[in-house]
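Field guide to reading this record: the first block holds the primary sequence, the second block holds the structure written as discrete tokens, and the final block holds curator observations. Each block starts with its own label. This record concerns Ricin-type beta-trefoil lectin protein, catalogued under organism Marinobacter nauticus.

BLOCK 1 — SEQUENCE
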Amino acid sequence: MFSSKTVVLGLTGLLLAGCGSSSSDGGDRSTSTSRTLNLPNAVAATSYVFRAEINTLSGDITYQAKQLPEWASIDPATGEITGNPEADDVSAKVPVSIQATNGKQTVTLSGSLQVEHTAAYLPTAARDFYSQDFEGNKRGLRNDLSGGELKGEVQFVQTHSVAPANNFERNQVDETQSKYMPRITALRDALLLFVPQPGLNPTTVDVEVSLHGEPLMTLAMAHPNALPESDVTGSREVQYSTQAWSIRLPWDTIRNGMSLRFVADRDSDTSVFGDLPAGNIDIGEASQIVFQSIRLGMLTEPGQENGHYTLRDPIMAATDYFQTMPVSRLVMGSYADAVLDRVIIRSGVIYDKEADGASQAEGGVYSGDMRENVAKSQVSVGINMANFGYTSNHMNQSHPHVFKQITNHHAWGMYQNGRVSHGLSGGNGIGTLYATWGNEASHEWGHAYGLGHYPGQGLTEDGRWAVHHADSGWGYIAHRDRMRANLFGVDESGAYNFKRDAMSGGSDGGPFSVYTHYTGYSARIIQNDVARLPVPDTSFPSGYKKWNTTTGQYENFSSSHPAPVEVGVPVATILGGYDPDGTAAVIYPVFHGNYGNVFELPKPDLSAGGDLCWVEVSNAEGNKKQVSVASDRHNASSVNQLHFNLHADFRPTSASLLCRREGNIQTLTQTSFDGSIPDLPPVGIVGQDIGYQQLRAREIAEIEVSLMALDATQFAVMNGELATLVASYTDTELRDELSTEAWQRLEQLKEQDEATREIAVILEQARRANVTVSETRSRLLRALTENGLIDSTDDLVPSGDVIRGNNLFFDSNLDEDGYVALTPLPQDLASTPRWTMDLKGRIHPTATPWECLTPVNGRLGLTLCQADNANQRWQYNEENQQLRNEGSGRCLDYAHHNTTLITYGCTGSWNQTWSGVSVSHNRLLSLLDGALLAEVYETLLTN
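BLOCK 2 — STRUCTURE
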């Protein structure tokens, strides 16, 4: 158990005489004097202690506070001011006034102090990405503010870091001088950044948010050292900016008419402000995209693949992909698996599994008549059209795009050359995919937004717009509170290794995403494509709404398309194909979806003359619906397809297709259903009023389970997965949604983190104030013991064991190339290097415990330990004695051909077995990162 005791940062203050005043009536009467009180600054989340020495008073002195912050108190006997300011107490000026008296003389001491951000004492060693421009030169900052003395650059980070306005500026003479970035997306939360002009180092920055001139809220911005960390992995840390103040703006504040006022050092006499007026903030439309996904078997069963991400985990898929899409709301709908034993193609030919066994054609990744006519046209386009309110169409795949919807299918078909799966194709509201994660999904969906291959490449000789670069934008992974870098990391020469756009070869999404980050160039095209279309909403007269960027609100969209009567409800989608000029027709089994639109469908007028075709649908309760479909071909080259939604609760049990020709009614086909509704995944919805509620509810439940599994009586740390989840949510969210016991356990873990931050603050403050080594050592030891990080100085020397296998041991004396060597095991192990594993799974040499075993270029090296680097975490299986890397999933392997230690796929072979892996409960090893741990050791153990 850890105490919440904190560390003394201020010791004794000396009262310095200053300009003051005194009063006395003479004789034995009391006198009063006013003096200036000089106080050291306080630091949030760290104990404050200060005592004024008053050498002008003698005898018994008593003290009282005339003015103190709420977090502080004074000892009436000693005058010692103590307290624990919190993050909310940070201020550029806090007035303080105390009074001391011995009964005859009274001294009033008045002054002020600053409460600084904890992060101000946690400097980062990371590189500042934004400080350099495309050419590698120092980047000049814009001034986006006016109306006051405060100057600086403002950015809004959603999927991309963008300026308040002018994000699209084309220079056709010199495209290297152009700007291709998306606008700010309305009704979507944003990370607001403010980078002050050089020379200004405020203690606090606040932002006042107004809408149409009416104040909404005032928010305290986080210190630049507290900017959300980047997702860059590796030993060389990179941050988007080391100078940017930040705060997350709520989704409903991001709308046209928003204005901002930035105030530096609000409480001080030197406070300055600057305005960003609404006219200088260019906010684009609030938009929405809907995805549907289905597994489809055509004359065969569909497969079940791990890559069917949108079906296996639609909530995470929606949340993750949303972070790459400049839209306000994203919906991830699902359909139950569909198996079609009879299919019809656009020529009117029907294939029957029992009679024919297969298509008459051959199939391939990009070929096959069932791929084109069934999967793409009748299923994907058919589902789209059913949600647009159109009951029939041709099979040529062209169709109106009423709102933005992409229907994905994982399709298998039986062809003359066997069972074939289709994928790697997208566009026109259709996704024909092997996997709905990775670059395949990001790329093929990109085609649906009008993106071609290598977009923008031909605009410049260097092709910069097709890949990421210094000005292509970072993103904000809001559900993880992490910055999304547009680079892999830093190469050995110190240059950035940039990622590629999804349409230009693609790059992995990083440790927190399975999707590719589009460049700003592509994101702008995506944003415009989605924003041009309305959003279905039954509360508007036309059934559709569209954002007005002048008024900053949704308005009715005049539409000639059918108006939905219900939006986003479970549906039974009836699909099929028929030839109105002949008799060929098929109605497929019901397609069950969890998110669709329902319409007042057209009914056949059986009293009118002329030819008619319609579908008659019945259920077990005897209810019937008649739905009119076209009685002529929509296109002479193709038979028709039919498609419409019924509310799932109708539970259809049969559907018949009838046509009246020259007065004679003929039933072309009839299909029976069982009337059941299969289990479906949840609908994934993210953005606007829903935010990330679905994922949060699920993950906080997972956090609860993990916390309750910890032994509350033992020292414990969060593993990498739990730490990531906990860091994703605010204390308020966690406190409100965890059980009382789980929250108490989490508080204990958070106290450990606070204790480690205090250690860093002590060392940084000592460095800035030139505190002596002995005094720093004293403060540090007191902090370590009072916070329970060590019981005694003996804890500073970790114990360990020799890690060995195949008569070789891990040698922490690196070889000439800088890698961990495998050295023959001696008989006497007394001087053999020892290693130990901390509770996070990091492996340290006991000689240099601030270093961790890290994969480097396929081999193993030693790098400074990092708090959240999965590549430094190992899982040891005591049964087979394997050491598996958490980041790569590979195991430590003895390459016997050259006697080197490498990482390799886990095989369970003899050359992957290692003994001597001991686990240390040393708290410092588990809690401190390498740089801080090294400084602690240097301070305490170096003369």
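BLOCK 3 — OBSERVATIONS
The radius of gyration is 34 Å.
Residues 1-22 have pLDDT under 50 and may be disordered.
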